[in-house]
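Risk register update: the risk of archive-format incompatibility is retired. Evidence:
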Amino acid sequence: MVAKDKLTAAAFLMVDPPVTTASVNDIKIMLHNLGILHGIAADDQIASFLTGEKGDVKDWTIASGNKPIPDAPPEIEYFFNTDPLKIGTLTEDGLMDWKNRGQLPQVKEGALLAKKTPGPKGKEGMDIFGKKIPIPKASEYRFKCGKGARRSEDGMMVHASLSGMPKLSPAGELAVLPTLHIQGDIGLETGHVEFDGHVEVDGTINKDYRVKAGSLRAAEIQEASIDVDGDVSAANGIFGATIRCNAT
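Archived output:
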C-alpha cells in the first residue's frame, strides 16, 4: 500500500505466521512493475520480512522516499543594541546605581543598521516512484523600514537615512528617531539620559538625574544636572537644577 504523499510503501503478508514462497527478486520485480523505484529496502531486510524473522508484524515499510528540506531562514544581524536599557549599573564598589540604566544607541546618517544573510539552501525530495519533490517555497523575510531607515536596492541591508537613535519596534520595524521623546518623567524608568539631538520630556526631570543633549524641552526640571549644546526650556519652571548650556 502506497501512502498518499507517495513517500512510503508498506508490504503486507496475508498469512499468519508469515510464510511465502516469494523471493527477494520476486518482490523487487513486483515493486518495479508498480513503478516503485526509489528507497527500496535492502535485500537482507526484505528477506528477513519474507521469512518472518521480523516477528509478528503484518505490514512493513518496504520503500521510503525522502521529504524535501526547506531553505533555512535568513540570519538577521543588527548593528546597534536593540534592547539598551538595563535594570541598573554596578558601581566600582559593587553597589547598584539604579539611575544609570545604560546608554541609548545613536547612529550617524548612512550607518548600517541591519543586514540579512541567506540561510543554507534546502534540498529536493524524492518519492518512491523516483519523482523529485520540489523545495517548499518559504516566505521571504523583508525588512520593515520606518522614518529614518532606508532599505538597500537588493533588500539585504538597512541604512540610516538621518542621524539619531536607531530603534527596533516590537512589530519588527526599523527606524531612526532624530528627537528623543519621553512621554513621562525622567526617573527610574528612563535612568539618566544622554542624546546628541533634541530631547522632549512631557513630564518632569526628577532630582539627581542627569540629562546631556543637543537641546532640551521639559515640562519641569527639579534638582537635576543638565548639560546641553543648544536651548533649554521648562514650561513649569526650573528648581535647583545645575544647568550647563552652550547656546549662543
